[in-house]
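Lab notebook page, bench 4
Experiment: in silico fold of construct C2
Operator: M.H.
Input chain length: 163 residues
Purpose: comparison with the prior construct
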Amino acid sequence: MSAFPQNDRITRFYEAFRALDADTMQAAYAPNAEFEDEAFSLRGRDEIGAMWRMLCTAVKDKGRADWKLEFSGIDCDDEVGIAHWEPTYRFSATGRIVHNIIDAQFEFDRDGLILKHRDRFDFWRWSKQALGLPGLLLGWSPMLRNKVRAQAAANLAKFRGRG
């Protein structure tokens, strides 16, 4: 057992993601958690859990053979933590293979649940892989980022049965 239980929580979180177990991932978050990355800005365990469920479902349905997840550098204390993770997957919108490189930051509540989760990655690098030529040409632009965020939000709403 690690000195801080949050190290074990984050390890289990990424092990669950590797296994495409969105329910276990969702259980790691506090009810009022916040999640932020280049594509999503989410509030609450249910909304965050729906995002992970949508992503896991996409991999199970259309890309399990290409799915790989490596993680390292987990370092947490009672209040904050970091991790590095690298998924390789088939981007469902284009069918292109993506290898993303992501650094995560976490804040924990009193119960050791994830209260804030921020993933950072090079959007231009991701967009070149995921979108091809449009990503290469426009991946640096706020316009493409906003379009990707809008599409991600629409996809999540549809997945949740609202769109």
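Observations: DSSP finds six helices and seven strands in the chain. The two ends are 44 Å apart (CA to CA).
Next step: discuss at group meeting.
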